[in-house]
Amino acid sequence: MILNPGQVSLKTLERIWRGDDPVTLDVAAKPQVVRAAALVAEAAAQAAPVYGVNTGFGKLASRKIAPEDTETLQRNLILSHCCGVGTALGAPLTRLMMVLKLNSLGRGASGVRWEICALLEGMLNAGVMPVIPSQGSVGASGDLAPLAHMAAVMIGEGRAVYDGQEMSGATALERAGLSPVVLGPKEGLALINGTQFSTACALAGLFEAQNAVRNAMVIAALSTDAIMGSTAPLLAEIHSLRGHSGQIEVAAEMRALMEGSEIRDSHREGDTRVQDPYCIRCQPQVLGAAQDVIRQAAQTMEIEANAVTDNPLVLVEQGLIVSGGNFHAEPVGFAADMLALALAEIGAIGQRRVALMVDPTLSHDLPPFLTPNPGLNSGFMIAEVTTAALMSENKHLANPCVTDSTPTSANQEDHVSMAAHGAYRLARMVDNLYVIQAVEAMCAAQGIEARAPLATAPRLQKAIACLRRAVPTLAQDRYLAPDIEAATALVRSGALVEAAT
Fold it and tell me: What interhelical angle do 419-449 and 330-358 show, nearest 10?
């Protein structure tokens, strides 16, 4: 996969995150990278102070550094900033973060030598994955701590995973046939100053949120048929009158999914219910709004993934090295908060459908807790409670992070984005949401089967068949945890959606 700096698509980034294809920086980027590095080398040789080139950092920016100490300055920067704590990122996220940094450096505005890009590319393709602690960044001045742990391996320090084993960074490079670099002027700062940790975590959350929306349409259609819900609220005219694209699309897909359902046709006449509860009637409005929010976040994330976010920046055409604030991850923080809200709401309305299906007073004659022999059996009683617990947890996690700024670095960095943990929490929210969706799918399939001999729509039958290959019908109480785990894996993989296509 060839990275064209500044023009990498979300589709490409998702493929990188989900796979392990070799990644190469387009060689056409080299001249610009070389020109920027030459400007930095020229500035380093002069007496005039240039931030990050021959000065200290942050509050210490007024301290001039002697030319003979330039290499030590950059090395000390990396080592002193390796202060991350917490659980290490998995390989897919680490790999995505490294690709984002490579893409940014390839724009030729960071002032690093081509050798730095080559080593980063070599590590990616050899499978040298730095151990990146998940905590320690406030999202400005960039993701300093996590990116420092990446850069540490590049200079032969820190820890890395290679060939499935954790070892010292120096050992990992040696075994992979790579050599550490000695950092030149500004190169350490270019590596650790940037939003790539936050952006990688937010992108992973985005890709999972897009998958969750696709799941939700199939599973919601199953639930609607299970409780003999009306399809009248899916009529195209209703949604055209409002005009939101996500709402229109969700309604259209749910209509298509439910086309040909014998269950639906059986109660078009003589149904005493006038309206369904909101979790059935307002599905396009809620899920469609979530889809629109996810798309807005995607637009932000595609721009950020291709951005240059370190400081100072090298403006080659103007021959300038200028300080700015592109390292501030506010756009990523906003996008992460938007994604969190969407994930929470997809789960919230899904959980209400689970509650509807297990409640005999609301499920239109389904057996209590969806078990054929209630009383002796509890059926999905506690599975529903689990979804309630996870829904509530996601509501708490959805509280905005970007508004929680705090000053750091002796008040020099006095407003920060908190994008890092705002983005990192998305993985936990996704895990919770997939369980909610898995339990809903199990309940909906059980409910539809209770309507026999009436059959659901052909596309939904295929989804149920897919589920049943992993999770049998609940005829009597059994140890349910493995079933939930198996259903969750199906939801995460997108297999239900694929089956219903």
Answer: 20
- The per-residue DSSP string of 231-271 comes to SGGG-HHHHHHH--HHHHHHHHHHHHHHTT-HHHHHTSSS-
The DSSP code for 173 is H
Sign of the CA dihedral 172, 178, 182, 188?
negative
Residues 48-94 pLDDT 10s: 888 888 888 777 777 888 888 889 989 999 999 999 999 999 999 99
Closest CA to 445 of 435, 434, 454, 456: 456
What single DSSP character describes residue 313? E
Rounded to whole angstroms, how far apart are CA atoms 129 and 289?
A: 38
Peptide bond preceding 141 in cis form (omega within 30 of 0): yes
Cα angle, residue 402 at apex, residues 401 and 404 outer, rounded to 5°: 70
φ and ψ of 93, to 5 deg: -70, -40
How far apart CA 204 and CA 424 sit, in angstroms, is 9
Residues 6+ apart with CB under 8 A from 214: 494, 497
CB atoms near residue 432 (< 10 Å):
22
In this predicted model, what pLDDT tens digit does every residue of 313-352 receive, in sequence order? 999 999 999 999 999 999 999 999 999 999 999 999 999 9
> In angstroms, how far is CA 366 from the centroid of its own chain?
37
- DSSP structure string for 180-193: -----TTHHHHHHS
Q: Which two tokens stand for residue 124?
A: 């990616």
Joined together, the tokens standing for residue 200 give: 């990688």
* φ/ψ of residue 431, rounded to 5: -55, -45
Nearest Cα residue to 8 out of 331, 335, 306: 306
DSSP 492: H
Q: What is the rounded CA–CA span in Å between residue 9 and residue 105?
A: 17
Residue 51 known to be catalytic: yes
The CA distance from 3 to 337, in Å, is 28
CB 360 within 8 A of CB 349: no
**What is the three-class DSSP state of 425?**
helix
286 and 345 in contact (C-beta within 8 Å)? yes
- Residue tagged active-site, from 51, 162, 424, 434: 51
pLDDT, mean of residues 172-185: 97
For residue 338, give both structure tokens.
Answer: 């938007």
Q: What is the 3-state secondary structure (H, E, C) of 20-69?
A: CCCCEECHHHHHHHHHHHHHHHHHHCCCCCCCCCCECCHHHCCCECCHHH
Q: How far apart are CA 90 and CA 122, in angstroms?
A: 19
Q: Please name which of 133, 126, 34, 30 lies closest in space to residue 81, comparing C-alpha atoms.
A: 133
Instruction: Give me the mean pLDDT over the 41-53 stretch.
Output: 88
